[in-house]
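subagent[fold] <- orchestrator: predict structure for attached chain, return C-alpha coordinates only, no commentary.
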Amino acid sequence: MPPPTPSPSFSPSPAPPPARPPNPSAPPPRRPPKPTRPPARTKPRPPPPPPGNSSSKKTDNNGWLTSLPAQATVSVSQPMGSGFPIADNIEGFKYDFPTQNILLFATGSGIAPIRSAIESRQLNVARPDSGGRTCTLYYGVRTPDDMSYVSKFAEWEEMGVQVVPVVSQPDVPCESGAKWGGRTGYVQNALEEDGVPIPRNSGALLCGVKGMTESVKSMLMEAGVFEGRCLTNF
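subagent[fold] -> orchestrator:
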Protein backbone atom coordinates (compact mmCIF):
# COMPACT_ATOMS: atom_id res chain seq x y z
CA MET A 1 0.00 0.00 0.00
CA PRO A 2 1.20 3.48 -0.80
CA PRO A 3 1.77 5.75 2.13
CA PRO A 4 -1.10 8.20 2.92
CA THR A 5 -0.92 11.68 1.37
CA PRO A 6 -0.53 14.35 4.03
CA SER A 7 -3.37 16.92 4.20
CA PRO A 8 -2.46 20.46 3.07
CA SER A 9 -2.05 22.96 5.85
CA PHE A 10 -3.73 26.39 5.77
CA SER A 11 -2.47 29.42 7.62
CA PRO A 12 -5.16 31.79 8.94
CA SER A 13 -5.50 35.22 7.21
CA PRO A 14 -4.31 38.14 9.25
CA ALA A 15 -7.11 40.07 10.97
CA PRO A 16 -7.95 43.50 9.43
CA PRO A 17 -6.70 46.51 11.36
CA PRO A 18 -9.24 48.06 13.69
CA ALA A 19 -11.32 50.91 12.21
CA ARG A 20 -10.24 54.39 13.17
CA PRO A 21 -12.72 56.33 15.25
CA PRO A 22 -14.25 59.33 13.39
CA ASN A 23 -12.44 62.60 13.87
CA PRO A 24 -14.99 65.15 15.16
CA SER A 25 -12.88 68.05 13.92
CA ALA A 26 -12.66 66.74 10.35
CA PRO A 27 -14.88 68.57 7.77
CA PRO A 28 -17.86 66.63 6.40
CA PRO A 29 -17.36 64.95 3.07
CA ARG A 30 -18.23 67.11 0.09
CA ARG A 31 -21.30 66.24 -1.93
CA PRO A 32 -20.92 66.04 -5.68
CA PRO A 33 -22.13 69.29 -7.30
CA LYS A 34 -25.59 69.27 -8.87
CA PRO A 35 -25.66 69.47 -12.63
CA THR A 36 -26.40 73.01 -13.73
CA ARG A 37 -29.22 73.68 -16.18
CA PRO A 38 -28.61 75.89 -19.14
CA PRO A 39 -30.25 79.31 -18.74
CA ALA A 40 -33.75 79.53 -20.16
CA ARG A 41 -34.03 81.33 -23.42
CA THR A 42 -36.04 84.51 -23.23
CA LYS A 43 -37.74 86.07 -26.20
CA PRO A 44 -36.34 89.46 -27.06
CA ARG A 45 -38.65 92.33 -26.22
CA PRO A 46 -40.13 94.11 -29.19
CA PRO A 47 -38.81 97.63 -29.68
CA PRO A 48 -40.98 100.31 -28.04
CA PRO A 49 -43.22 102.34 -30.34
CA PRO A 50 -41.99 105.76 -31.33
CA PRO A 51 -43.10 108.64 -29.10
CA GLY A 52 -46.63 109.77 -29.73
CA ASN A 53 -47.59 106.59 -31.60
CA SER A 54 -50.61 105.15 -29.77
CA SER A 55 -53.23 102.59 -30.70
CA SER A 56 -55.87 104.56 -28.80
CA LYS A 57 -58.17 106.83 -30.74
CA LYS A 58 -57.34 110.47 -30.04
CA THR A 59 -60.20 112.72 -28.95
CA ASP A 60 -60.54 116.14 -27.37
CA ASN A 61 -60.46 114.61 -23.89
CA ASN A 62 -57.71 112.00 -24.06
CA GLY A 63 -54.79 113.92 -25.52
CA TRP A 64 -52.95 113.55 -22.22
CA LEU A 65 -52.95 109.78 -22.82
CA THR A 66 -52.45 109.44 -26.56
CA SER A 67 -49.53 111.91 -26.56
CA LEU A 68 -47.55 110.17 -23.81
CA PRO A 69 -44.01 109.10 -24.74
CA ALA A 70 -43.06 105.45 -24.96
CA GLN A 71 -42.64 103.59 -21.64
CA ALA A 72 -44.41 106.34 -19.67
CA THR A 73 -46.02 105.27 -16.38
CA VAL A 74 -49.71 105.89 -15.71
CA SER A 75 -52.01 105.01 -12.83
CA VAL A 76 -55.19 103.06 -13.54
CA SER A 77 -58.23 102.17 -11.46
CA GLN A 78 -60.27 99.00 -11.41
CA PRO A 79 -63.11 98.64 -13.94
CA MET A 80 -66.29 100.42 -12.93
CA GLY A 81 -69.80 99.07 -13.31
CA SER A 82 -71.49 95.87 -12.28
CA GLY A 83 -72.25 94.50 -15.74
CA PHE A 84 -75.56 93.92 -17.46
CA PRO A 85 -77.87 91.44 -15.65
CA ILE A 86 -78.76 89.70 -18.91
CA ALA A 87 -79.49 86.25 -17.50
CA ASP A 88 -81.91 87.59 -14.88
CA ASN A 89 -83.92 90.00 -17.03
CA ILE A 90 -83.50 89.12 -20.71
CA GLU A 91 -83.55 85.35 -20.45
CA GLY A 92 -85.80 83.10 -18.38
CA PHE A 93 -89.46 83.46 -17.50
CA LYS A 94 -89.43 86.55 -15.31
CA TYR A 95 -91.88 88.21 -17.71
CA ASP A 96 -94.81 86.72 -19.56
CA PHE A 97 -93.45 87.88 -22.91
CA PRO A 98 -90.21 86.23 -24.13
CA THR A 99 -87.48 88.48 -25.45
CA GLN A 100 -87.45 88.43 -29.24
CA ASN A 101 -85.74 91.75 -29.92
CA ILE A 102 -82.67 93.42 -28.37
CA LEU A 103 -81.90 97.14 -28.61
CA LEU A 104 -78.40 98.40 -27.79
CA PHE A 105 -77.58 102.07 -27.11
CA ALA A 106 -74.10 103.54 -26.68
CA THR A 107 -72.45 106.93 -26.83
CA GLY A 108 -68.72 107.66 -26.84
CA SER A 109 -66.66 105.22 -24.79
CA GLY A 110 -69.89 103.49 -23.70
CA ILE A 111 -69.46 101.31 -26.75
CA ALA A 112 -66.82 99.23 -24.92
CA PRO A 113 -69.23 97.44 -22.50
CA ILE A 114 -71.73 97.04 -25.34
CA ARG A 115 -69.04 95.44 -27.46
CA SER A 116 -68.34 92.97 -24.64
CA ALA A 117 -72.03 92.07 -24.47
CA ILE A 118 -72.16 91.49 -28.22
CA GLU A 119 -69.03 89.40 -28.51
CA SER A 120 -69.82 87.34 -25.42
CA ARG A 121 -72.81 85.98 -27.37
CA GLN A 122 -74.93 86.13 -24.23
CA LEU A 123 -77.54 88.11 -26.15
CA ASN A 124 -78.35 85.03 -28.25
CA VAL A 125 -79.04 87.07 -31.37
CA ALA A 126 -79.04 85.70 -34.89
CA ARG A 127 -79.18 86.98 -38.43
CA PRO A 128 -82.63 88.32 -39.35
CA ASP A 129 -83.00 85.81 -42.18
CA SER A 130 -82.51 82.92 -39.74
CA GLY A 131 -85.64 83.64 -37.71
CA GLY A 132 -83.72 84.16 -34.46
CA ARG A 133 -83.67 87.02 -31.96
CA THR A 134 -83.13 90.37 -33.70
CA CYS A 135 -80.78 93.09 -32.47
CA THR A 136 -80.07 96.73 -33.35
CA LEU A 137 -77.18 98.86 -32.07
CA TYR A 138 -77.52 102.66 -31.96
CA TYR A 139 -74.03 104.13 -31.54
CA GLY A 140 -73.69 107.90 -31.15
CA VAL A 141 -70.51 109.96 -31.45
CA ARG A 142 -69.63 113.58 -32.09
CA THR A 143 -67.66 113.18 -35.33
CA PRO A 144 -66.74 110.24 -37.59
CA ASP A 145 -63.19 110.33 -36.20
CA ASP A 146 -64.57 109.67 -32.71
CA MET A 147 -66.13 106.36 -33.77
CA SER A 148 -64.37 103.31 -32.30
CA TYR A 149 -64.44 99.68 -33.46
CA VAL A 150 -65.45 100.59 -37.01
CA SER A 151 -63.55 97.54 -38.22
CA LYS A 152 -65.84 95.40 -36.03
CA PHE A 153 -69.10 96.56 -37.58
CA ALA A 154 -69.10 93.99 -40.39
CA GLU A 155 -68.35 91.21 -37.90
CA TRP A 156 -71.21 92.31 -35.65
CA GLU A 157 -73.56 92.49 -38.62
CA GLU A 158 -72.59 88.94 -39.51
CA MET A 159 -73.50 87.92 -35.95
CA GLY A 160 -76.97 89.43 -36.36
CA VAL A 161 -76.47 92.95 -34.92
CA GLN A 162 -77.69 95.76 -37.15
CA VAL A 163 -75.35 98.71 -36.55
CA VAL A 164 -76.81 102.23 -36.75
CA PRO A 165 -74.04 104.83 -36.26
CA VAL A 166 -75.24 108.37 -35.50
CA VAL A 167 -73.06 111.50 -35.68
CA SER A 168 -74.16 114.60 -33.78
CA GLN A 169 -71.74 117.11 -35.40
CA PRO A 170 -71.16 115.95 -38.97
CA ASP A 171 -69.99 119.39 -40.14
CA VAL A 172 -66.98 119.53 -37.80
CA PRO A 173 -63.80 119.01 -39.88
CA CYS A 174 -62.12 115.66 -39.21
CA GLU A 175 -58.37 115.15 -39.12
CA SER A 176 -58.84 112.08 -41.30
CA GLY A 177 -60.75 114.11 -43.86
CA ALA A 178 -63.79 111.83 -43.50
CA LYS A 179 -67.13 113.11 -44.74
CA TRP A 180 -70.23 111.77 -43.03
CA GLY A 181 -73.18 110.67 -45.12
CA GLY A 182 -75.06 108.61 -42.53
CA ARG A 183 -77.61 109.45 -39.88
CA THR A 184 -77.16 112.60 -37.85
CA GLY A 185 -78.39 113.97 -34.55
CA TYR A 186 -78.51 111.98 -31.35
CA VAL A 187 -79.24 108.38 -30.48
CA GLN A 188 -82.59 109.50 -29.04
CA ASN A 189 -83.55 111.01 -32.41
CA ALA A 190 -82.75 107.80 -34.24
CA LEU A 191 -84.84 105.76 -31.81
CA GLU A 192 -87.73 108.18 -32.17
CA GLU A 193 -87.56 107.91 -35.95
CA ASP A 194 -87.39 104.11 -36.00
CA GLY A 195 -89.76 103.33 -33.14
CA VAL A 196 -89.70 100.20 -30.99
CA PRO A 197 -90.90 97.00 -32.67
CA ILE A 198 -92.71 94.48 -30.45
CA PRO A 199 -92.00 96.48 -27.25
CA ARG A 200 -93.40 93.87 -24.87
CA ASN A 201 -90.98 91.36 -26.38
CA SER A 202 -87.99 93.72 -26.40
CA GLY A 203 -85.07 94.31 -24.05
CA ALA A 204 -82.41 97.01 -24.07
CA LEU A 205 -78.82 97.58 -22.93
CA LEU A 206 -77.71 101.18 -22.42
CA CYS A 207 -74.28 102.66 -21.74
CA GLY A 208 -73.14 106.24 -22.21
CA VAL A 209 -73.83 109.76 -21.01
CA LYS A 210 -76.53 110.14 -18.39
CA GLY A 211 -78.75 112.31 -20.57
CA MET A 212 -78.89 109.64 -23.28
CA THR A 213 -79.58 106.71 -20.97
CA GLU A 214 -82.34 108.52 -19.09
CA SER A 215 -84.00 109.81 -22.26
CA VAL A 216 -83.85 106.48 -24.10
CA LYS A 217 -85.11 104.54 -21.09
CA SER A 218 -88.07 106.89 -20.78
CA MET A 219 -88.89 106.47 -24.48
CA LEU A 220 -88.66 102.69 -24.26
CA MET A 221 -90.95 102.48 -21.26
CA GLU A 222 -93.48 104.80 -22.89
CA ALA A 223 -93.48 102.48 -25.91
CA GLY A 224 -94.25 99.49 -23.67
CA VAL A 225 -90.87 97.93 -22.84
CA PHE A 226 -90.70 96.53 -19.31
CA GLU A 227 -88.63 98.73 -17.01
CA GLY A 228 -86.73 95.68 -15.76
CA ARG A 229 -85.60 94.95 -19.30
CA CYS A 230 -83.94 98.36 -19.71
CA LEU A 231 -80.49 97.43 -18.43
CA THR A 232 -77.51 99.61 -17.54
CA ASN A 233 -74.11 98.47 -16.27
CA PHE A 234 -73.94 100.72 -13.22
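orchestrator: received. Logging for downstream: The helical segments are 63-66, 86-89, 111-119, 153-159, 187-194, 210-223. The first strand starts at residue 101 and ends at 107.
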